[in-house]
Amino acid sequence: MPTLTKTVPNAQPAERAAAALQIALPVGAGILAPYLDPNAAAYAGAGFLAGATFAGANYMGRLGRWANQLPGIDIARAHRDTMGISTITTGMGLALGQLGGAEASDALMAGVFEPTTIPGILSLGWWAAVAFTGWRLRRVFGHRKIDVQQAQPTTQAAPANTGAPGPVSLADKMIAAWGRVISDPKNGRHKNQILSDVVIYTDRWEGRITAALGDSVNVSKEAVSSLFGRSVDDITMKYGAHSGEALIAVWYTQRPELDPSTLQGAWKRVRARVLPKTHLEEVGKDENTGGQVARVIADDDLDALPRAVDLGELAGALRRSIDLVSYEPGRRDPRRAIIRVMDHNPLEAGHDFPGLDSLKATPGGWVNIGKIVSGFPARIQLFDPQLGALHVVIAGTTGSGKGGTGQMISLAYHANEMAQIYGDPKGASNPAIPKMAAYSGLTQYGAMGAIRISWWVLQHRIEEAARLELKNFTPSASRPYCATILDEAAQLLAPGAPNRKEAVKIVKDGASLTRSMGMPWVLINQTVNLDQLGSEQAIRANLLAGGTWIILRTDSDQVNLGDLPPGFEGIDPSLIPPVWVEEDDSLVYDPTVKESDPRRTFGLGYVAAPGGRAGMMRIDNLEDATEHIRPENVLAPVDVPWWGDEAHMEELAQTPIPGFEEKDDEGGTGEAGTSFAGVDLPKPKEMTSEEKVLASLRDESDPLYVAMLDEGDEIDPDDIDYIERGHLQSACGVAESTFANVLNKLEKKGQIHRTKKGKTSHVALGPRPEATGETAA
Fold first, then answer.
1. Are 576 and 548 in contact (CB under 8 A)?
2. Please, are residues 523 and 487 in contact by the beta-carbon 8 Å criterion?
3. Cβ pair 305, 336 in contact under 8 A
4. CATH number, domain at 745?
């Protein structure tokens, strides 16, 4: 085919314009700077500072990946040297013109004619830098000749312009260069191996190589590298439909799989050290986290991904903090998982609790208590229409959000009109929960009483179900679900705890027998080690099979990760950082930079519920649930005949359950007390709530007043010794819900009386004096 020689510019118009601006800008700034009014001078100075900052960062290669999206960034990076020189010379012209006026500007521009003076030397250096910039950019303004193949004329009549060349595209130039160097039948390095179907993208070009009939494609990457001036690493080639066809891609920028800062590039380390025989598919940007998300796929020679993936090692291989990596195993396909590498963790900002109605359960018993890192809701199942009530286990060290998570679960029960029994050995670590509970037992003694009450409710429902032949639990207002929440469970279940054997028996029965009775259990503890849950495999097995586990940050006490339930394999909860990672972690202290206060990772952890979406999650932010409590939703298991009989309930709370009255590990009662070898002391009888109130009132009252009452002496109203109600309640240790009823009963019996002093109620021993004019409290 005939060829035509054509002259074309070396650079595109945009690059030529950028080069001309670099040469003209210093001279223009030097001429115009003295004549700018103050406002224009201020704008010019601000513009120069912005441009100088960009040029400096570009020169040092410190522009981040965000700059890849800027128009003309390829030109800026190609001209980084000349841009730097032009910025300096422009700054000199602008500064001298604005600060020294026309005289200084003239000295800079014309001082070259007096080279022996200091201004002349400065002017000479300035003009040399401007000229050097133009000399370095001379190639941009040049032209080159190329040969273009013309179409062969046909025998048919052709229009007058048949011999004129058509438009020449970049793809045409590449194909023509390939034809001269590689596929030329006489002198080509790989004869008759033709390049076609070239498509040019912003980051690469792709094409098809076809060999002569009967031959295979054997074009080397080295030949392509030499022709197009790209590194061998920037070239990929693979066979097409047959050996005589190959697909080629030549990258302008670093390929993602070779860039260690990308997920694809880092996966080489992951394949070598953590997840061998795997690859990534559907790699894309995760808008929720600013990072990348992809599917992890097992290779053909791997049937399933490992069940246990060490999240700490995975984060290390990806060069990320553990709170910036999320790995979600496939819920159905064992050969697939989801990996997320985040620039920032979207859970860091938290999510405010949207209101009580947001906790209304679906027909299947599911509620949303927070969000997982992927943006999906963190869901737990409170109950199942067929299985019944489902248990919850919450584990986390102090400050991890364990209490807030327990409060959220309690509020979920409250939103769905479920009764609650609450035990907290520490006292009042979660003050909102007792306000939602039908019965609360605070302190270690009170918590033991609370789980005893739960056990007796269970016995009633078991007997009732047997008598009425009830198969599945159907809740109602008079027979609601009744959850038992035990905070700091290890204080009742761990070795050395008082009444441990009895507590283990109660929790074991609760874990194994209560689901079909509508009585879920919530165990809250610092760790999930088996010995901290009573050393009973039956407890752990039934809790595993019966609901949700929420694991927050734990500490070194979580020594046995084997105690973690399915879904938590490879997760080390102690690796969750106590505070969010700060990016401005400087090596040298700068007193002018204000240090930011560390923010704790409160509520950050992992949730695993059967059928739920596993992953890193955070509970919704809620400091105090009190404002969301609805009095009409505070229900009690009134199907139990003795519920509401305060005296009887207190007796049940204070009395060990059958089988533990006289026996424990040491043959005693399991209560703390005094024992002597060879001497059997009678067990002291536990006082009732009424006896506790009266005894405390006698102890707190004036002994002379008590003696006068005991002797039956006549007492002047002014001599009555009143005790403030709150002080008396603290002294006797009776729960508030019981204390009010006890005072009413004792006052009806005439053993005490009450009066109002200001806004505070006061209590005194003995009946109310006649005709004193006192106002009953």
1. no
2. no
3. yes
4. 1.10.10.10
